[in-house]
Design a protein that fits this description.
- By secondary structure, this protein is an alpha/beta fold.
- It has a single domain, classed as Purple Acid Phosphatase, chain A, domain 2, CATH 3.60.21.
- The chain has 8 helices and 13 strands.
- The strands form 3 sheets. It has a 5-stranded mixed β-sheet, with helices on one face.
């Protein structure tokens, strides 16, 4: 059963349908791994959610920061829309509750039983192995589903900014969410920077792309991620980065995880002005 990993869709339903057509996707044969950020900024988040949900067990989806933003708007009580949000149709949909229930049931990280590729949205700090990342993801998922309103109200913030096994409660969960859904840059010591966007900093900076840190404990696992459109496609350091900037006018990209077939991409219309994110 071939596995195709697909980059950040962000509400680009027409492009997703075109990509599935190019892949000749068959529910009898194929599985799709989505790196997160199914929704927002593109024009058709509602259609994307309905389509991916309809795929059932053929689709593995991890939560991205925009997916969590949608949940926070719908369930968190105090979260305000941001400039560029395109989530009104989801929030007003008759099947809103079913879609949100499905979305909140998606994991923050996925790995097939017995090891193998790890699917996440953003990154890992160097101290985390794939197994440790999965353990922490399960902690957060349980807390989110146990009390979504309270969790989503307390989820936002950039602190703490360094990993420690002594972190507990919401501080531990917030750090885990930030790493798995927002991380681009960190230090070898596990300090994260969530403010810098665009490409990697200059070589003199202590901050490096998370996957370039040679001492990271996850180096033995191939990691599939998205989130960093300024980098585009990444195939180095044992990772595959698939955010090729669909919503910014780039492309929506898929890769066969089980053979060396060429990448499959479809061009995107560009629904937002290009930004350095």
């Amino acid at each position: 059963m071939p596995r195709y990993a697909i980059g950040d869709v962000q509400g680009c339903a027409d492009e997703l349908r075109a990509l599935l057509s190019r892949l000749a996707f068959s529910a009898d044969r194929d599985r799709l791994w989505f790196v997160g950020d199914l929704v927002n900024r593109g024009p058709h988040s509602l259609e994307v959610l309905r389509l991916v949900k309809s795929l059932g067990e053929n689709a593995i989806v991890v939560l991205g920061n925009h997916d969590l933003h949608l949940l926070a708007l719908a369930l968190g009580g105090e979260r305000e829309p941001r400039a560029g949000d395109t989530l009104d149709a989801v929030l007003a949909a008759k099947d809103r509750d079913a879609l949100l229930e499905w979305l909140i049931g998606r994991p923050l990280a996925h790995q097939e039983p017995g090891g193998g590729d790890l699917l996440i949205h953003a990154g890992l700090v160097p101290q985390w192995s794939a197994a440790r990342a999965l353990e922490l993801a399960r902690e957060v998922e349980a807390a989110l589903r146990r009390g979504p309103e309270a969790f989503l109200r307390a989820m936002y913030g950039n602190r703490p900014d360094q990993w420690s096994e002594t972190l507990s409660g919401m501080e531990r969960w917030r750090f885990t969410v930030n790493v798995l859904t927002r991380l681009r840059l960190c230090t070898a010591g596990g300090r994260i920077d969530l403010k810098q966007k665009g490409g990697p900093p200059k070589a003199k900076s202590e901050l490096r792309p998370w996957f370039e840190i040679d001492t990271r404990a996850s180096r033995g696992t191939r990691i599939i991620f998205g989130h960093w459109s300024a980098l585009g496609l990444v195939r180095a350091h044992g990772v595959i980065g698939l955010d090729t900037g669909c919503v910014w006018g780039g492309a929506l990209t898929a890769i066969n995880l089980d053979d060396d077939a060429p990448l499959v991409s479809v061009p995107c219309a560009g629904y937002q002005p290009i930004e350095s994110a």
